[in-house]
Amino acid sequence: MSKPVILCVDDEPDILNTLKMQLKNEFKDNYFYELAESADEALDLIEDFQPETEVIVVVSDWLMPGIKGDELFMIVHKKYPQIIKVMLTGQADEAAVQRAFKEADLYCCLYKPWQSKDLIETIKSGLAKLL
């Protein structure tokens, strides 16, 4: 069986690379770490992986060109409700965050600049829900 995937979505490549580095430092080779620079790219990746390789966590920015993070999470939740969804944002609209909690089962919202330990603990506690 293939390793599960943690997918990070942000329109800033530097943010994506930092997320991947922090996750890989903690979780080593237990997961595949995929990066997407837009919600559309993220949705394509999720479709490509399922069902052979399970996407178990999506960490996404809110403010991105095209589809925003809350909308991405609502789309993902409709099709794959078991995916843990974490918003990581510097400028989320509070109404959008609340909508994501209510309509997309958002697990947590972290704010940029984030602390690596907060991100790791959030993902660990989210993964514990899956077990």
Tell me the number of strands. Answer: 5
CATH class: Alpha Beta
Beta-sheet strand percentage?
15-25%
The CATH superfamily bears the name Response regulator
Q: What's the number of helices?
A: 5
Q: Please state the structural category.
A: alpha/beta
H/E series: EHEHEHEHEH
Shape: globular
Q: Helical proportion? A: 40-55%
Q: What's the end-to-end separation, in Å?
A: 17 Å
Rg estimate, integer Å = 13 Å
Mean pLDDT equals 95
Low-confidence stretches: none
The fold-level CATH name is Rossmann fold
Describe the structure.
Helices cover 48% and strands 20% of the residues. With 131 residues, it is α/β, with parallel strands linked by helices. The protein has one domain: Response regulator (Rossmann fold, 3-Layer(aba) Sandwich). The protein is globular. Strands 2-1-3-4-5 form a five-stranded parallel sheet, with helices on both faces. The protein has five helices and five strands, in the order βαβαβαβαβα. α3 runs parallel beside α4.
Which features characterize this protein?
131 residues; alpha/beta; Rossmann fold; 5-stranded parallel sheet; 5 helices; 5 strands; 20% strand; globular
What is the fold's blueprint, element by element?
Layout: E1 5-9, H1 13-27, E2 32-36, H2 39-49, E3 55-60, H3 69-79, E4 84-89, H4 94-104, E5 108-111, H5 116-130
Parallel strand pairs: 1-2, 1-3, 3-4, 4-5
Helix pairs in contact: 3-4
